Amino acid sequence: NHANVLMNSFHPNIGVIYDLLVADIICVEAAGSGGGTASNVLGVIWLSPLYRWTAIDYTEALLHETVHISLFLEDVLYGLSTDARLVHEPDALALSAIRGERRPVDKSFHSCCVALAIAQFYSSIGMIEKVKDLPPPLSTAIDELYGPAYKYLSSHGKHILDVLKDSTEKQSVSLAA
User: Fold this and answer.
1) In 11-134, alpha helices (H)
2) What is the spatial distance between Cα 168 and Cα 26, in angstroms, rounded to a whole number?
3) What is the end-to-end Cα distance of the chain in Å, rounded?
4) What's the rounded Cα separation, in Å, for the pair 87 and 110?
5) Maximum distance among all alpha carbons in the chain?
6) Percent of the chain scored above 70 by pLDDT?
7) N or C end of the chain: which has fewer CB within 10 A?
8) What does the alpha-carbon distance between residue 64 and residue 157 come to, in Å, rounded to a whole number?
């Protein structure tokens, strides 16, 4: 419940999106992962919370997974890549802003969106120290998506990437101030 309150206070639209898109949360024990979603099971989040998680940790995890679900839905409705079968081609790899490793373009795209949402969340609650490491890798990951992997994004995916780049630049400026 505290995580729901935090998510709504961070941005009311995020709370509405969460309420509309998340039908079920399943808690399981999974070493090495805090949670996840699957593109073929829209609306379901699985979490593997640690005993020491706070409401802020739960909020971050739920926000993270809600961004993925919204992108899965966006992909179903409008398409984010030109051909999902090609996202594993060698030149379709780009840096993941979350994992810091090169991944298929769809995974890198998702990680950029998640990283920006998390940065905005922590900034909004005054926890700037949690995001100091995000903007440079996020900017690098976005720049990589404009490289060879760019041709694998649909026109809609390219539009979202442009919005993401603009938002990231504004976020970086606000963190520097």
Assistant:
1) 12-21, 55-78, 105-124
2) 31
3) 33
4) 13
5) 43
6) 95
7) C
8) 19
CA distance 14 to 174: 20
Contact status, residue 118 vs residue 63, Cβ threshold 8 Å: yes
Cβ atoms 3, 58 nearer than 8 A: yes
**pTM here?**
0.92
Three-class SS state of 49: coil
Q: What is the Cα–Cα distance from 7 to 39, expressed in whole angstroms? A: 22
Lookup: tokens for 121: 């969340």
Residue 53 has phi, psi (to 5 degrees) of -60, 140
Q: Are strands 24-27 and 44-47 parallel, antiparallel or unpaired?
A: parallel
Which residues does residue 95 pair with via DSSP β-bridges, in sequence order?
102
Angle 148-151-156 from CA coordinates, rounded to 5°: 135
Each residue's pLDDT tens digit, 128-159: 888 876 666 899 999 999 999 999 999 999 99
For residue 6, CA distances in Å to 12, 131, 142, 143, 169 come to: 10, 17, 28, 31, 25
Judged by DSSP in three states, 174 sits in helix
In order, the DSSP letters of 9-40 are HH-HHHHHHHHHH--EEEE---TT-SEE--TT
Nearest to 21 by CA among 80, 74, 79, 98: 74
The Cα–Cα gap between 140 and 122 comes to 20
